[in-house]
Amino acid sequence: MNRKTGVLLGRLMRTIMRSPDTIITVAITPIMMMLLFVYVFGGAIETGTENYVNYLLPGILLITIASGVAYTSLRLFTDVQSGLMARFFTMPIKRSSILWAHVLTSLVSNALTVLVVILVALLMGFRSNATIIEWLIVVGILGLFTLALTWLAVIPGLTANTMEGATAFSYPLIFLPFISSAFVPTESMPKIIRIFAENQPVTSLVNAIRTLLYDGTISNGIWIALAWCVGIMAIAYFIAGKVFKHKLI
C-alpha cells in the first residue's frame, strides 16, 4: 500500500469512526436475524446439530458482509456526486489509490462488524473447536469474500445516478443465503430449489466455514468456495477498472 492510499484510507476511516453508527447499523440486522432464528425458529428446524447458533453463524457472517459492502458503494457514489472524485483526479495521486482506499476501508469496517456479530454469537452459546490455523483460514475466506463483493460494489458506486441505485445491488446478495445451506440443510428443499442451492457460491462458502469451525478439516469444498470468490473478484475488478477509466475521460 503506497502512502497516498494510506492517506485516503485514513480519511475514510476517520469518517466511519466519527459516525460509528454505520458499523452498528450493519451489525443490527444480522444480529436480530440470528436472535430470531435461534430463539424463535431454531427449535423447529432440524439441522442435525446440537446448537443451532453454531449451524447458523457462517451464513449470518456472509449476510453481515453483504450488508456492509453496500456502504462502500454509497461512499463512492457520494464522492462522485459531490465532485470530490473529480477533485482527486486533478491532484498528484495515483488513480488506483482512490479505489483501493475505498476497498481497504470496506475490508477494515466489515472486519469490525463481523467481530461484533461473533461476540454476540458467543453470548448466545456459539462454540468452536477450531485451532488458530483453522480460524486464520476462516478469516482468509471471509476476507476474500469481502474483497469480491467490495469490487462488485464499486461498479454501482461509480455508475449509479441515485443513492438507492448505488445500494440496490446488495439486496439480492443479502437474500441469496436464504436459498442455500445457511439456515437449513439443502436436503430438505424441493428438488429444483435444492439444485440451485447446492450449486451457488454461498452454500460452498458456508459449508467450507462450517467444516473448519466444527470438524477441523479442510475439505474439497474449500477450493470451490475460494474459486467462487476469486472468480467474482476477478470479473468485478476488471469491470470496475473499465468503468473507472471511463470516468477519467
UniProtKB/TrEMBL annotation:
The cross-references to Pfam families, in alphabetical order and at most eight, read:
ABC2_membrane (PF01061)
**Localization per record:** Cell membrane; Membrane
Family annotation (InterPro entries)? ABC2_TM, ABC2_TM_bact-type, ABC_2_transport, Nod_factor_ABC_transporter
Q: What keywords are assigned to this protein?
A: Cell membrane, Membrane, Transmembrane, Transmembrane helix, Transport
Q: Where is the signal peptide?
A: none
Record domain ABC transmembrane type-2: where: 21-247
Membrane topology per record: Multi-pass membrane protein
GO MF terms listed in the record are:
ABC-type transporter activity
This protein's major location comes to membrane
Q: Name one GO cellular component term.
A: ATP-binding cassette (ABC) transporter complex
Q: Which residues cross the membrane?
A: 21-41, 53-77, 98-126, 132-154, 166-184, 221-240
The UniProt entry, under PROSITE patterns, shows: ABC_TM2
Q: Which family is it part of?
A: Belongs to the ABC-2 integral membrane protein family.
Q: What is this protein called?
A: Transport permease protein
Q: Which organism is it from?
A: Oceanobacillus jordanicus
Q: What is the lineage of its organism?
A: Bacteria, Bacillati, Bacillota, Bacilli, Bacillales
